[in-house]
Amino acid sequence: MRILIVSLVWVALLSLYGVSSGSSARNNQPQSDDQVNSPAKTTLPKPSFSDTKESDSVAVTVDGKTIMESEVGTLVEAQLQSITSRMGGSQKVDTKQLKMYREMLKPQILDKMIEDLLLEKALVKEKVKVTDADLNAVLEEMVQHVLTGNSLTREQLDSQLKSRGSSLQASLAKMKANPEFVKSVRMKKIIETGFAGELAVTEKDVKDYYQKNLKTKYSQPEMVRASHILVSILDENRKPKSDEAIAKAKEKIKEVQKEVKKPGADFAELAKKYSDCPSKNQGGDLNFFKRESMVPPFSAAAFSMEPGQISDIVETEFGYHIIKVTERKEAKSFPFEEVKDKIRLELKNGKSQQATKKYISNLKKKAKIEYPEGKEPKMPAGNAGAPSN
Question: What domains sit in the chain, N to C, each tagged with a CATH number?
Fold first, then answer.
């Protein structure tokens, strides 16, 4: 595994132990097509570096240390498997695509392996040591980052972890005992020592960033939380059904509407019984959404109602809906004092990322990196179209 600078990967490290990001993916039919679930990242197995290896060929030599083709291939295939699994499995990806992905992945992964080797060497050379207090301090920074970034209390974070069979204390103890975490703290020390001036974040930096991004990042648009019952007019291929089937759907939603209007009717139970939307499993609940997140007729109806109100039948491209608004949030801007700590962390991470890139670039310039003839990597310009890790 590539050595990571802790300040850049707080959330990723915590997520290894089941901490949620604070947002849940939804797949509700009224949503717009551009709302796509984000796949979890898969951690690559740690490469092993060897000086010699029989029945294999050298991919590159870094300061006399070799990286073998088989080692690169193992990581390429692991990443390729992760990518294709998100696309429905290798059987869903044709041979031409697989070849293209391999060609794109190999130079990227080989470059990361070179960086790993150089960073490992730098740790040995710099002889940076960390104390128990250093580790605890970084762990506390990580916790504060997650709490701030997800608007959680320490108790809520602990509760999330306990619901997954762990606890905050156990998770941090496990991380503290992880050699890769200790290495990352050592690397953090190197970066903070060598680039101290470049990592400073002033109050003016934070305020300027807040003002620049107030409308896009620190303002909340008007939002509505609603539940709905959908009688779909689309077939399994998301194509319109026959006129006869659509007529039956219209009659069905009218019958459902009669049920909804009965005194004491339980909207959630009726959604579970009649709705064709996956949200029926949550009683039709779509959670909070922005006006532009739903198709126009649905949004127009939902945003015209107050909590507790139930709509008439609403027709969209998906079918016929009955909508119940449960909560509303008015548009607002988040006060500077409320978000300044989050901004400071974001700016610090950005500066640390740039410093780390510079540090690695310097290591590469000083290193003796030799490729066998004909194996010099040709990175695609900008890695355009390359599959993401």
Answer: 6-22+42-215+335-383 (1.10.4030.10), 221-332 (3.10.50.40)
